[in-house]
Design goal:
The complex is a heterodimer of chains A (204) and B (317).
Chain A (H helix, E strand, L loop, with lengths): L15 H32 E5 L9 H5 L7 E5 L35 E7 L2 E6 L9 H9 L4 E5 L11 H5 L5 E5 L23
Antiparallel strand pairs in A: 1-6, 2-5, 3-4
Chain B lengths: L1 H25 L15 H4 L8 E8 L6 E6 L2 E6 L2 E6 L3 E7 L6 E4 L4 E4 L4 E4 L5 E4 L9 E7 L2 E6 L4 E5 L5 E5 L2 E2 L4 E2 L10 E3 L5 E5 L4 E5 L5 E6 L16 E4 L5 E4 L6 E4 L5 E6 L11 E5 L3 E6 L4 E7 L1
Antiparallel strand pairs in B: 1-26, 2-3, 3-4, 4-5, 6-7, 7-8, 8-9, 10-11, 11-12, 12-13, 14-15, 16-17, 17-18, 18-19, 20-21, 21-22, 22-23, 24-25, 25-26
Classes of the chains: A alpha+beta (204), B mainly beta (317).
Chain lengths: 204, 317
């Protein structure tokens, strides 16, 4: 039997040449499709960037340890219009401090990346020194628990290299890291709310 | 060469796959390493048993719709939540219920009427549930967080404008004060987040919180500061964070029930601020929200747990 392609559809015979031709066409179509997909993907990567939803962040510390960059692209930012300018700031002081002073032993931040500045009695301003901030979220945890959450993390796009697969996003336990449009790359508290823009949505 | 291809190459390939899989799975959230930057307040969550004066005797599941408020009057507990006000006799049996506007945030009850506070207005009802009067919205930035009644006057804590407003029975504002006093150089109420309370003591004295200063303050109707105390500490004898105590109630003997946010705990402080005991330690709560509290006589404290959506009743041991 010379016909190697006869089978259940035995009356429909396919020649070797036709088989190879159709396989080549299929391969070309797949390759073109792949190329188109890569092009679309490439253009999307220019339009979208990674960002942290501060309302989903659980301050797990991985932004400091998982970023592929030596200096994490994640930094703490401060929504000043939400801040209470508290004397006893949960984001600045270690829990249980007896004196509200600026010595390193009283500071929560492991790199002393927050500057405390007296405004007027009893208000203090807290300024993030970005060159020192490692994005560990310790201050964010303190502020979120004991303050009103004005300190929060954001991916800084002057540092981020916008990896195709963000290493922090992959390890984020709360799926707080998402793609956002590059022309609105930040999700700053106060400008953005998951449900409604009211500053004080509910008392509880 | 054949051995390399048939044996070593597959082994090598398997090893590479294993390393990649380990690396991938090892960084999955459930198998992650400990957070080296953990914010840990566990040592402050533990409370010695001898400091705990109350035990939980009952829980009642409630539908809160994010907000809710409670108050006692006589034997009855008044619970306002969603768009309904329930009157619960002896903390057990619902004896009456009626509709109120959606999302009540605070409530106070007198012999004559019930006042329910919403974000920026108050509404008075008679005990049958008929609306008597509704206040106007005074300011777009008002945010009412607490109401109290003394005689025929209604005191409203406006956290948005940082003032205490006084209304009459017609829900008309008659005056307000800002908590400014030369005593202690008070520059006004410091309200970093929407936690601001008013309460009337058993002798008719008006108490307010000043949460940014971790203080309780007693004012007359003109806004003159009469008495004040504060306790700044994350330890059990004080208040920590930006805005604590977040909720208060006054016991018949003049001492205070305080409820805190951040690390929720309910405590009793004497009239002069001295720590007395713990009603519910942080271990009794799951979230970070401060439960609303109301006092039923001297020995029973009722808490509205926003995280667990429970009405929780604590009785003295």
């Amino acid at each position: 039997m010379n016909d190697k392609t006869s089978g259940a559809m035995g009356d429909k015979k396919v020649k070797r040449r036709d088989f190879i031709n159709s396989t080549m066409r299929l391969t070309a179509a797949v390759a073109l499709g792949g190329l188109a997909g890569m092009t679309v993907s490439k253009s999307n990567s220019g339009q979208y960037v990674w960002q942290i939803d501060p309302f989903e962040c659980t301050q797990c510390g991985r932004c400091a340890t998982e970023c592929v960059l030596t200096e994490s692209a994640v930094k703490c930012v401060h929504a000043y219009d939400l801040c209470g300018y508290c004397d006893l700031c949960g984001g600045y002081f270690k829990p249980g401090v007896k004196n509200l002073e600026t010595g390193a032993e009283y500071q929560l931040c492991p790199t002393a990346a927050i500057e405390r500045k007296f405004i007027e009695e009893p208000y203090f301003e807290y300024i993030i020194k970005e060159d020192l901030c490692i994005g560990c979220a310790k201050c964010v945890a303190g502020c979120t628990s004991f303050g009103n959450g004005s300190l929060h993390l954001q991916i800084r796009h002057d540092i981020c290299v916008n990896c195709n697969e963000c290493a922090i996003a992959r390890s984020c336990p709360s799926d707080a890291i998402m793609r956002v449009q590059a022309d609105e790359p930040y999700l700053i508290k106060g400008n953005f709310s998951p449900e409604e823009p009211a500053k004080w949505k509910n008392k509880s | 060469m054949k051995i390399f291809i048939r044996v070593l190459l597959p082994v090598l390939a398997l090893a590479v796959v294993a390393v990649i899989a380990y690396d991938y799975l090892g960084k999955k959230p459930s198998k992650g390493e400990k957070n080296p930057y953990e914010y840990n307040v566990d040592e402050y969550r533990e409370v010695p048993a001898e400091l705990i004066s109350h035990e939980e005797i009952r829980q009642i599941k409630v539908d809160l719709c994010d907000k809710g408020a409670l108050a006692f009057h006589g034997r009855n507990l008044f619970l306002a939540a969603c768009n309904e006000l329930k009157i619960i006799e002896d903390g057990r049996k619902v004896v009456n219920r009626f509709s109120v506007d959606p999302l009540p945030a605070s409530i106070a009850v007198s012999d004559d009427f019930i006042v329910v506070g919403y974000n920026d207005y108050i509404k008075l009802y008679d005990h049958s549930g008929n609306a008597i009067a509704t206040s106007e919205v005074i300011s777009d930035s008002s945010f009412y967080t607490s109401v109290a009644i003394k005689n025929a006057k209604i005191y409203v804590a406006d956290a948005g404008k940082r003032v205490v407003r006084i209304f009459n029975k017609d829900a008309k504002e008659v005056s307000f004060f800002e908590g400014v006093s030369e005593i202690n150089n008070l520059i006004g109420f410091i309200i970093p987040s929407p936690y601001f309370e008013v309460a009337v003591g058993s002798n008719g004295e008006l108490w307010t919180t000043n949460p940014g200063m971790h203080a309780l303050q007693n004012y007359n109707d003109k806004g003159d500061l009469l008495r004040s105390w504060d306790k700044v500490s994350i330890r059990i004898d004080g208040f920590s964070g930006c805005c604590n105590p977040a909720q208060i109630a006054v016991l018949p003997n003049g001492s205070f029930v305080t409820s805190e946010k951040g690390m929720p705990r309910i405590k009793i402080h004497a009239a002069n601020g001295d720590f007395i005991s713990v009603v519910a330690p942080p271990a009794a709560f799951d979230g970070e929200h401060a439960p609303e509290v109301a006092a039923w006589g001297q020995d029973t404290i009722v808490a509205l747990d926003y995280d667990k959506k429970l009405l929780r009743i604590f009785a003295k041991k």
